[in-house]
Design brief:
Helix content: under 10%
Oligomer: single chain
Distance between the termini: 55 Å
Number of strands: 19
Radius of gyration: 29 Å
Strand order of the largest sheet: 12-15-19-18-17-10-11-16
Shape: elongated
Mean pLDDT: 83
Largest sheet: 8 strands, antiparallel
Strand content: 35-45%
Low-confidence stretches: none
Order of helices and strands: EEEEHEEEEEEEEEEEEHEEEH
Structural class: mainly beta
Length: about 300
């Protein structure tokens, strides 16, 4: 019998008094017994599967209860994974950016912690952990994160300074090189622009404090002794990331001469410097050549 393309009596259980439709199974509980194994598979065609010695692509979980209650496939994944990539993109933007590359040689390597110091504020991000085998990527495991912070941050590969408690200032100028030429035969000048350059320059000032990249804690105790260290960093002629609480972010070089000015008391030092944007902070290639990233070129987006 067919009705709206549905067979009411199309299988051996269709006339049973209980419904045959089953919702997605999301919970399994075992109790009041002794069990050797628990094996769940997506292979619905096999109604009585033999217990498998290894995982396959249809396996959902397989618990052997050999002194543990784990039912995952981490051992099987180890043989199919040479590394893990961590990627990031702004929600609504289809271009992923690889921010971490982690080799996998043992089960312990699946457990790692990292920080993303180059995320901007006031942004909705998606992060993905991607297993790779050789040069081939696997499925993306994606989570959503809203990024928000206060103050200004100055970031190098191994060091972060921030301004957690001051009224910070970042002023910018958009540079579009051009000239206005007076032509003898014309009453009005001629505008001339022979470059596609368009970049920001600006000034920044604030009371900067060292941020421990591992604990994400500011070192307030030794704030008075950090002035010389940040002045050295500002003078080391290396690229940096400058990012502001309102969402602005640049890949910069410090230009001119940084200054250290006392304010209110000897321990309140305001650091000021001029800077110029040198590349796109979203470019994996630019971050690599700037010495801010170790991501190999095989994982760069075109």
């Amino acid at each position: 019998m067919l009705f709206f393309n549905y067979s009411f009596f199309g299988d051996s259980t269709s006339v049973l008094p209980t419904p045959t439709a089953v919702d997605n199974i999301t919970y399994v509980e075992l109790q009041n017994g002794i069990y050797d194994d628990l094996y769940i598979t997506r292979n619905a065609g096999d109604t009585s599967p033999a217990i498998q010695a290894e995982w396959d692509f249809d396996t959902v979980l397989y618990a052997t209860f050999h002194d543990i209650t784990d039912a995952g496939n981490i051992t099987w994944n180890l043989s199919n994974t040479s590394g893990l990539l961590v990627k990031r993109r702004e929600t609504g933007n289809g271009k992923w950016m690889t921010i971490a590359e982690h080799p996998v040689n043992s089960i312990a390597d699946f457990n790692f912690i990292g920080m993303d110091p180059f995320a901007r504020s006031q942004a909705a991000y998606q992060y993905a952990v991607v297993p790779v085998l050789g040069n081939v990527e696997g499925d993306y495991c994606i989570a959503a994160v809203n990024s928000k912070f206060d103050g200004i941050f100055l970031v190098e590969k191994d060091l972060i300074y921030g301004t957690p408690f001051t009224a910070d200032l970042v002023n910018t100028t958009r540079n579009v090189p051009s000239s206005v030429l007076a032509i003898p035969a014309n009453k009005h000048p001629v505008y001339c622009s022979n470059s596609i350059a368009s970049y920001d320059t600006g000034s920044c000032s604030g009371t900067f404090v060292y941020l421990d990249p591992e604990t994400c804690r500011f070192d307030f105790e030794h704030i008075y002794s950090q002035t010389e260290k940040i002045m050295e960093r500002l003078s080391n002629r290396k690229p940096k990331i400058l990012k502001v609480y309102d969402g602005r972010i640049w890949l910069i070089m410090v230009t001119g001469n940084p200054t250290d000015t006392g304010k209110d008391c000897i321990y309140n030092r305001v650091i000021s410097f001029e800077w110029a944007e040198i590349e796109d902070y979203k470019s994996e290639k630019a971050l690599y050549w700037a010495g801010l990233s170790d991501i190999s070129s095989q994982w760069w987006n075109p």
